[in-house]
Amino acid sequence: MSDAPGGTTLVIGCGNLLGADDGVGLTALERLRGWDLPPDVELADGGTWGLNLLPLIEGATRVLLLDAVKMGATPGSLTTLERDQIPRFLSTKVSPHQIDLREVLALAEFRGTLPEETVVIGIEPERIEMSADLSPAVANRVDDLVVSAAERLRAWGHSVRPPVGVGACTS
Fold it and tell me: Is the entire prediction scored with pTM above 0.70?
């Protein structure tokens, strides 16, 4: 399969590695770094970037966000949200350091620069608290999150191959 025509695809790992399951997006992003990805797929750590993510998002043709997604499902459940399902809003903040990804997406949409192909793939968290460890329910699904991300990249026309030694079910 050839690389997707035109533009770049930006994959952003979201969350906080010190927030227990909130760090699942960053954990998945690090595992995805081991895959064979084409040069037009850019990986970005979006953990605490806030508004600094805006030019990356605006410069991409497609955006894939990996994150903990609280939907009220069983912890460890995978969820995919297409562009129109992704929560975004603007609100008054006390400090510019309070800007999170929802505001960045809202700002890009307001400016008319949010890519049409913007998707979130996430895992339902079990716990969000001060901890560097994922809960077992979430840790057991990180590879599934990475495979789902790879499948979306393939659907967008990218040639994506798992690292050597990863089972055939992920190729």
Answer: yes
Asked whether 88 and 109 are in contact (CB, 8 A), the reply is: yes
Domains and CATH numbers, the chain: 9-170 (3.40.50.1450)
Tokens of 170: 């992920």
3-state secondary structure 115-163: CCEEEEEEECCCCCCCECCCCHHHHCCHHHHHHHHHHHHHHCCCCCECC
Tell me how crowded residue 169 is: count the other CB atoms within 10 A of its CB: 8
Strand partners, 87: none
Q: What is the DSSP string of 44-104?
A: EE-SS-GGGGHHHHHT-SEEEEEEE--SSS-TT-EEEE-GGGS-------SSGGG--HHHH
CB atoms under 10 Å from CB of 49, counted, come to: 16
Least-confidence region, from 20-29, 55-64, 93-102, 119-128: 93-102
Angle between helix axes 142-155 and 24-32 (nearest 10 degrees) is 60
